[in-house]
Write a structure and sequence with these properties.
71 residues; 2 helices; 21% helix; alpha+beta
Length: 71
């Protein structure tokens, strides 16, 4: 998976944001589809200066797929 594929999740009009915080660092995860129809779980960190850093990206689990489909 490439960085560009991970970015595609944010263009999915139905992507879901969930809390992915670690200890005191606030993080969000986006669950959404890429152009090739892969469902990904992408963790991001929003910096104070309004930049976004992608921490990790991986295929979504079955539980994360349920969150995407039903919430």
């Amino acid at each position: 998976m490439t960085f560009l594929e991970a970015c595609e999740v944010f263009f999915d009009p139905f992507f879901r944001l969930v809390d992915a915080s670690v200890e005191e660092e606030a993080r969000e995860a986006a669950i959404g589809y890429t152009e090739d129809s892969g469902l990904l779980f992408v963790v991001r960190l929003v910096r104070e200066e309004e930049s976004i850093r992608i921490i990790s990206a991986r295929p979504a689990t079955a539980e994360e797929k349920k969150i995407y489909e039903y919430e």
